[in-house]
Amino acid sequence: MLLIFNRATGHIPLKIISIEDGTVLKAFNHLLHRNKKVDFIEQFNEKLLVKQENENLQILDVRSSELMEVSRTEFMTPSAFIFLYENQLFLTFRNRTVSVWNFRGELVTSFEDHLLWHPDCNTNNIYITSDQDLIISYCKADSEDQWMEANAGSINVSNILTGKCVAKINAANCIAKVDDCSNTCSCKHIDSAQIRSSVAEALEDITALFYDEDRNEIYTGNRHGLVHVWSN
After folding, report:
1. pLDDT for residue 196
2. Can you give the residue ranges of every domain in the chain?
3. Taking the mean position of all CA atoms in its chain, how far away is CA 16?
4. How far apart are CA 91 and CA 75, in angstroms?
5. 3-class SS shares of the chain: helix, strand, coil, % to 5
6. In a structure prediction context, what are the per-residue pLDDT tens digits for the chain, which is 232 residues long?
7. Selection from 180, 176, 159 nearest residue 168 by Cα
8. Which residues contact 146 (CB under 8 A, 6 or more apart)?
9. Which of 68, 88, 162, 163 shows its CA 20 to 30 Å from the CA of 98?
10. Of 83, 70, 79, 81, which is closest to residue 44 (Cα–Cα)?
11. DSSP 3-state assignment of 199?
12. Are 97 and 115 in contact (CB under 8 A)?
């Protein structure tokens, strides 16, 4: 676990401690540019990611003290991270886009069709599979779909390592009523009042998304308090 202390004039004191017994594994000062705010300090195993405003991303190996930098023009401050422990990679989210990076500071994946609905990265609408090979997100409809239902988004499934879109649920490929859906996907909703929704309505204002990997079903909830189940 990383402990971040109050910033000093030209550095910030850091400690890495054992979660098991609280033992201090390493204590050190990380040098900072004066008068530049710290955008983030993130720890992933032995790697430390430090980014200051309008400065390069620094990736520090806390065991070897090896430091590498990624140009600020290549790596801009994201709004959120998701670390992929199985693949030794991390996802960044910025302005509706998702990118995959390794700890050598290299961009691994850019997604071909995965523009998030929320610009501030609402991670309630994002699911990473347990194998960390797929990302499922509530996304903006592409230009071919937007004319159909301007307020409806889509549920996009993309391969994390290749960036390819492998599946999509939208009003175009699932057009029947929620209670009688016989096309590409089937969907139903769970609520006590048995309110009927069209697929397009079910794809509006989604506030939460979950994928049941055992049943191969996607659950979504919307701002109306309805829960919909999507299966194929």
Report:
1. 62
2. 1-73
3. 26
4. 12
5. 5, 45, 50
6. 899 999 998 999 999 999 999 999 999 999 999 889 999 999 998 899 999 999 999 999 998 999 999 999 999 999 898 999 889 999 999 989 999 999 999 999 989 899 999 887 778 899 999 999 999 999 997 655 444 456 789 999 999 999 999 999 987 766 433 333 333 455 555 444 555 668 888 899 999 999 999 999 999 999 888 999 998 7
7. 159
8. none
9. 68
10. 83
11. helix
12. yes
Closest residue by Cα to residue 128 from 157, 163, 88, 154: 157
Q: What local confidence, expressed as pLDDT, does residue 182 receive?
A: 35
Closest CA to 120 of 156, 77, 76, 79: 79
Q: Is 192 exposed, middle or buried (0-12, 13-18, 19+ CB in 10 A)?
A: exposed
Residue 20: burial class (beta carbons within 10 Å; 0-12, 13-18, 19+)? exposed
Q: What is the C-alpha to C-alpha distance for residues 155 and 62, in angstroms, rounded to an integer?
A: 39
Structure tokens at 137: 């997100």
Return the half-sphere exposure (C-beta side, CA atoms, 13 A cut-off) of residue 230.
Answer: 29
Residue 150 structure tokens: 């301007």
Q: What is the pLDDT of residues 178-208, one digit of tens each?
A: 333 333 455 555 444 555 668 888 899 999 9
- By residue count, the chain amounts to 232
Q: For the domain bounded by 1-73, which CATH number is listed?
A: 2.40.10
